Amino acid sequence: MSVKPDSAKALISEDYLDFPSQRWYYLGFGALLQACKAVDVLSSFVSSDSRIYLCKKWLLFDTLYCIVLATLRIPRLNYSKAVVALQVISLWLFNGLIFGGIRVNVWGDGSGITTSIPSQHDIAHTPEASSLMDVLAPFTFGLFSSQVTRNDAHLLGQHTVRMSPISTAQLNPYGETFCLPSSGNAVLVPVLLNNTNPVALRFSVTPLGFNPGQPEMLDLSGKELRAIEQARIETLQLTRDASQDEMDEYDDDPTPKHSPSLQRTQELIHIRLPKPGVLRLERVLDSSSTEARLVIPSDVTIVPCPQAGFTPDKSAANNIRCSGQGNDVQLMMDINGVPPLSLRWSRSINGKREAFLVEGIEGGRHSESSPSSDHSPPMVITSTGPTRLTAAPEKLQVPFAISLDAPGNHVYALEEVMDAAGNTMLVGGNANDNLANHHAMRSFTVLRRPAISFKHCSPEHPVPLAIGSEAVLTVSTMDADNLDAPWDISIKYQPHPGNKRFKPWRKTLSTQGSRRDLTIGANAPGEYMITGVKGKWCAGDVLAPESCNVVEKPIPTAEIKWTKIHECSGDTGVSASLVLHGTPPFHVYYKMQKDFEPPREMSKIFTTSRGQFTLQPEHSGHYIFTFTKISDANYQRVEFDGPSIDQIIHPPASADFVGVPGGLGRKKALNSCEGKAIDVEVELRGSPPWSLELQLVGPKSSEILMFGDITSNRKKLQIPVPAAVDNEGGTFEIELISVEDKSKCKLPITVPGISVNVRRLKPTVKFYGADGKRQVTVLEQEQTGLPLRLTGESPWRIQYRRVGDDGISSSTLKTPNDFVYVSEKGLYEILEISDAQCPGLVIPDASHYRVDWIPRPTAKLSEHTPATYEPLNGSYILPPLCEGMDDHVDLDLTGRPPFQIMYNIAQGNEQGGTTLIGQPVFNSIQSRTRFQLHTSDPGRVYYEVKQIGDGAYPLEKHKNTPIPRYERLLFEQQVSLRPTARFKTRNRLSYCLYDIFTPLDKLSSDGLVVLEGSPPFQLDLSIKNLATSHVDMQTIEVHDHSWKISLQNYQFTSVGPHLIVIRSVADSSHCAHATLDPLGTSIWVDVAEAAAIVPIDRREDFCVGEAAQFQLEGTPPWSIGYRINGKTYTQEAKVSPFSLLQQQPGEFIVTSVAHQQKMCKASITDLRFSVRSLPSAQVGHGKRIYQDIHEGDQAEIVFTLIGEPPFTFTYQRSELASSRSKPGKILETHTVSRIYSNEYSIFSALEGTWTVTSISDRYCRYPPIQPELGKEKTRP
């Protein structure tokens, strides 16, 4: 749509209303109109009579909406005149479609007459009489229409007679109960009126009680009643707005408990009463000055609303009780209302709720004043009748005893109170209000008595107390409530007998906040006792252990004795003997100082009261040993003056081998592969210089070696290899005999010796091969072991490589005939070897081994196969052939038979790609095999050898190793389609005698030959005349894929059927044609003479809606020409007999008939008759008349008759319809005959709806009787 610029001035200035708001309001108004239209659309489906009216209405509304929008000139909604016109036309079209103003009639059969005769839908008919309105009606989309008028023009109108109902008034129609919540309020009592327009209302109010006195009469005018109703609606609206949030939160239903569903004749009014009493409806006066009938009962009782609550009590604030301390509580309740009353209350203990109901609550005054001999309600007789009496309300005070035994939360709530009038009131309003002093609720908290005792302390397990420190005693509170916190705990202290340092005392301590444990600092030994406990509300109990004994522990001490250790070299160390006093375990700390070095602190741990340890330093010097501190289980690092010892210590000389790995047993082991001597390292302790004595033990002799003047702690000694072992190899041992230091004290040595293994033969390695052949052939990527021959001592470690690779591999071998495992082909070379002791030699002549792979099988086209190689895609192009011909190629295979060949077969598709049609596998046992080609489907066929298996590489084990795509064998072939020909349809063709065999209808597909293949085509046809048995052969060349039979040189010379058969077809591929379908390659041609038409019924008069039947001669279809009132029409007929439904009065004349698709036409001059109009009948001159009468009156029903007298018509009376969609039940039906006038009247005092169901005049009847039509037959 094109939008005008904003320069156009709006009708409503932005000073009054801004443009966005104007757009919003007007578009919102349009959306409201469319919503109303949707409601009318739904209602039109229920009652179709109103569709035209609704269509006209919305055509007018939508047009006005668009015109007003254009007049307002609102920016961004201001359109050009052309766009506005387009909007109006679019809305008109839409309204016409949804309301039926526009009808999509595919078959052209939509007349009103035919719709009343279901069996005539398929009958041909004449056009209806038309006028200027009929021409303009389709273009108005339903605004003007004559169609519906004619559909209902024959039987119009109805006369409905209704009996006026009796006016009634019913007080309190829903049986509600009413009560006044307070003296300043009023109640609204409903009165249900039926067929009543009240102008005055009288009621009486009788006071409550059994001695009421005279009732008070009150009157309300119609104006007052309307004011009461208006005030009620406004109050209800304000109440709903104020409680909207609460309704959303709790999902309450704001609808009143008794939601009235009023009928059309009913009305609900209310009486406002501000005081209690018995209200009685005395009289209701209608606008017609008639009194409405009062429905019994006509009175209702209004009482003060019942109330209940706990009596206010000053002690109610104290709602905390202790368990087991006289927990019976007496509460008082104030209950107001009309006795006897019922009270519903609940009790909740620790969340477990129980509900109770108390009935029959009444005071003594009620029992004295009310009659006891009669159980029926008392009555008083007034001027208008008996009135029930109700007791006066009373104020009662009722005791309410409760028991508070179980600890926890106790909640007692008054929920509902009910009075004798049936009023039920919730007590306390909001059920979530849990205040203890609420008048409808009392809550109590019953606390448990606290219990207390010492924790982790008892007379049997006293708490130790170190001197000068403080012990922590814990008092634990059990079975107590946090609400009772803090707790006051009474503690008494009593020192041990004989201890004069401390005095007894008593204290009261409090816990911190809601903490249940109390810690007490005890700095004096003695007995601590709990004497009592009291919480904030409740006194408690003292549990065992109620006393705690605190014992003072002594400081640890020690008795120490030093002893010197003396040997030949002098003093070598000291030993200490200790007797310890205290609580084990003990830690004894001492200091050791050598010469002028800083002292070092050391410690020893003893788990018993006695201990001994030895100190022998490894180095000589002046040592001082001093004990400094002691610790036990109770005291840490207590200073004490322990004994000291001053000693010059010379450690004894000793020696040992170092840097030699361990061997079997306690001995150390060395290996020697070459050389006359070996090096060993010894470590010496003592005072240098040292002299060392060693012994060499050989297989047959031994030798003593002396090494002197050794000044360093570590010395590397060179030990000669014995001659016997050096020559042949073997084992000898080195033992340390003795050592002598500066003190000339020679000491023996008892350390493990060294076992030396001397080898003079080096290990070797070589590849093993039978007959000197070191080569193996295996499957591709298969792991294989290369055999080795090893000499030496296990384990061996070798290094090898594959010639040509930079990397070096290594392997550890354990047997002399082990293998090296490889998976790649190539030449492998051994580089180095070493065994468990010595490096070895690689034998040069046997250091290489070759690994080869068995070649995979291959396939290629045989050189005798005619194919052209295409280097662009690496494919072989095979010669083309025709569809279905047998063809093959020969493949040359290499490998180990048998072979399995997996290949892909694909075919080109219309999108330019290929579609995989199969992946078969075929087997061959020969190296040259024949490969069968796929020629059953035409198109480009592609073959790809995906994988080949043979005896070495079977497909089952090597499915995941296909041939790489660039190495696969590819070949392709063009399979040409065999030409075919068939008739597109097998419909019979019709020609007239002496016609040339050329197409009569170029747009029809009858006689069209469809060809498949490569043009041009050569088509052979045969034409057989069955009447003369003559066959004519025709050969035609076709340059397209379709050809419509056109034989200029062939003329039909005889009447009867002719058979056309396609004998053969050929195309440019020179392939033989495919098998031709006998049914699809032949059609029939019917050749006929001129057509004829004969009427079956020789009548001179027909009625509109009747069908005239004719017998047709010739070959279908026929074309019949006729004339009505001077206008010419044409009708098609496919079967004979042929029926034509008359829909237009006047003179009907048949002028011509033709067959063979409007060919072979014949003129008709003597076939004519008259068509008469249908009669019509109207009730109430065609209108809907509604007449209300009273009992004893009569209504006149007038019938108008249109047509040629005499008339006969049928009318019926039915019940009043309960809804528009469901008609009433038919009560009576009458038929009146021989009426020569055009108007007829009847009188009736009965209620119902009169309608005409049928009418007949001199010629016709409406609705017409369905004619007996002949069944149509189809010619073979």
Keywords:
1276 residues; 96 strands; TMD_POM152; structural constituent of nuclear pore; 47% strand; six-stranded mixed β-sheet; Nucleoporin Pom152; Ig_POM152; eight-stranded mixed β-sheet
What is shown here, in short?
By secondary structure, the chain is mainly beta. It has ten helices and 96 strands.
Could you characterize the architecture of this molecule?
There is one protein chain. By secondary structure, the chain is mainly beta. Helices cover 10% and strands 47% of the residues. The strands form 22 sheets. Strands 60, 61, 62, 64, 65, 66, 68 and 69 form an eight-stranded mixed beta sheet that branches. Strands 3, 90, 92, 93, 95 and 96 form a six-stranded mixed beta sheet that branches. Residues 1092-1163 form the Nucleoporin POM152 ninth Ig-like domain. Residues 449-548, 762-847 form the Nucleoporin POM152 Ig-like domain. Residues 244-253 have a biased composition (Acidic residues).
Write the layout of secondary structure elements.
Blueprint: H1 19-46, H2 51-72, H3 81-99, H4 112-115, E1 124-125, H5 132-136, H6 147-151, E2 155-156, E3 158-163, E4 168-171, E5 178-180, E6 187-194, E7 198-206, E8 216-221, H7 222-242, H8 244-250, E9 266-273, E10 277-286, E11 293-294, E12 299-304, E13 307-310, E14 320-322, E15 328-337, E16 341-349, E17 352-361, H9 364-369, E18 379-382, E19 385-388, E20 394-403, E21 408-418, E22 424-426, E23 441-447, E24 451-455, E25 463-466, E26 471-478, E27 488-494, E28 505-510, E29 517-522, E30 526-534, E31 541-542, E32 547-553, E33 557-567, E34 570-581, E35 586-594, E36 600-606, E37 610-615, E38 621-631, E39 638-639, E40 644-649, E41 654-658, E42 668-672, E43 677-685, E44 690-697, E45 702-710, E46 714-720, H10 723-728, E47 730-740, E48 746-748, E49 754-758, E50 764-767, E51 775-778, E52 784-791, E53 796-802, E54 809-813, E55 819-822, E56 826-834, E57 841-842, E58 848-853, E59 858-861, E60 868-870, E61 875-877, E62 881-882, E63 888-894, E64 899-908, E65 914-918, E66 921-924, E67 928-932, E68 939-949, E69 970-976, E70 980-983, ...
Parallel strand pairs: 1-85, 2-89, 3-90, 4-11, 5-12, 14-23, 24-31, 25-32, 42-49, 50-57, 51-58, 61-69, 62-69, 71-79, 81-88
Antiparallel strand pairs: 3-95, 4-6, 6-9, 7-8, 7-10, 10-12, 13-15, 15-20, 16-17, 16-21, 18-19, 21-22, 21-23, 24-26, 26-29, 27-28, 27-30, 30-32, 33-34, 34-37, 35-36, 35-38, 38-39, 38-40, 41-43, 43-46, 44-45, 44-47, 47-48, 47-49, 50-52, 52-55, 53-54, 53-56, 56-58, 59-63, 60-61, 63-67, 64-65, 64-66, ...
Domain Nucleoporin POM152 immunoglobulin-like: 553-654, 888-959
Biased composition (Acidic residues): 244-253
Domain Nucleoporin POM152 N-terminal transmembrane: 18-102
